[in-house]
């Protein structure tokens, strides 16, 4: 995989590597840092003069929080764009080795610890992560240490790791119910405090807040319901599987009913909240795995490289939960192997489309069964893992009598905050 970053022989196996320029996402952070140094908005881009002012060769719109541009984005600008990109790849390689070593150590240097460590090195979404210069592997690393902190009752480790993840990508907000169940208020405050560091920027540039919300929230929660956006190989979430399945049976359909994403989200969140707050025994690793996998079930936009964020779940289940080893390994294989993109695009593609941009009509030339299978592999495997986690915790017992206790606790804390 590392060699292919230079020679590209794996690119045709993955949609993003086949259709998107290398380092595109990294250059979005790089260019945001350049905009900061030049005193310009990191979110707004002037198509008439912006490219002349740009330092990166190309880039996608910036959609992260301001502190990330002021920190890593500015530091990257100490080097020319491509040198900075390769430096970022090298840094992630160090994280990869460190994560594998920690996985082996905390598993007691056992055989299963070796298996868990090896899983870090044989995961194809990691190739896309490095190809695009993404930041999901940083999230995977923070999730690993958050989980370790939860497993060993180390609130400081879990809280700091979780807080760092929040200012990298906001997806780890999904762990908030778990931290509430643990009563780890200091960890929650640490995350809130670090996230609050971004407020002064938006007070200084209030117009940028609209751009940030539109780029980072609307595209995921309220993404446009038209065929060119929904019927795309770029999205690998469970919601995308259902949407692409529905659209593959109706070539003239332009969207899907909004009841689908709403119902799916409510069902997954309700089941996850139930085992979190009403479960008889709060197994921290299982709850962490439940919420981490839940994101892929109702997330509005789940590129293939996002699945590196599930690696901590899988390696920890393999190393620390014997009952979950076989299911975790089965899910790992489904996620680790490349999708059938190459076969669909180069063998069964009836009308190759040359346009090299993300939202293109590539799937229109694929057979319907191929579209369904392509989108099913990763999210359905994740759904099976999440369902198994919920079922095991549900079988251990749900205490409905905890509902009034939880409500009383919430009321008591609200009175305390209001000074009553």
Question: Could you explain how this protein is built, in words?
Answer:
The protein has 420 residues and is mainly α. The chain has a domain at 4-22 and 92-155 and 169-180 and 225-402. The protein contains 23 helices and no strands. The protein has helices spanning 4-7, 15-19, 24-38, 50-53, 66-76, 81-106, 111-119, 125-132, 136-151, 155-166, 176-182, 185-196, 199-204, 206-221, 227-230, 238-249, 259-277, 284-298, 311-320, 325-336, 341-346, 368-395, 402-417. The longest helix has 28 residues, at 368-395. The radius of gyration is 22 Å and the shape is globular. The relative contact order is 0.11. The model is unreliable at 354-358 (pLDDT under 50).
Form type: globular
Helix/sheet category: mainly alpha
Mean pLDDT: 86
Q: Helical stretch count?
A: 23
String of helices and strands? HHHHHHHHHHHHHHHHHHHHHHH
Beta-strand proportion: under 5%
Q: What is the percent of helical residues? A: 55-70%
Gyration radius, rounded = 22 Å
Let me know the number of strands. 0
Low-pLDDT segments: 354-358
Distance between the termini: 60 Å
Largest sheet: none
Question: In brief, what are we looking at here?
Answer:
The chain has 420 residues and is mainly α.
Give the helix/strand layout.
Blueprint: H1 4-7, H2 15-19, H3 24-38, H4 50-53, H5 66-76, H6 81-106, H7 111-119, H8 125-132, H9 136-151, H10 155-166, H11 176-182, H12 185-196, H13 199-204, H14 206-221, H15 227-230, H16 238-249, H17 259-277, H18 284-298, H19 311-320, H20 325-336, H21 341-346, H22 368-395, H23 402-417
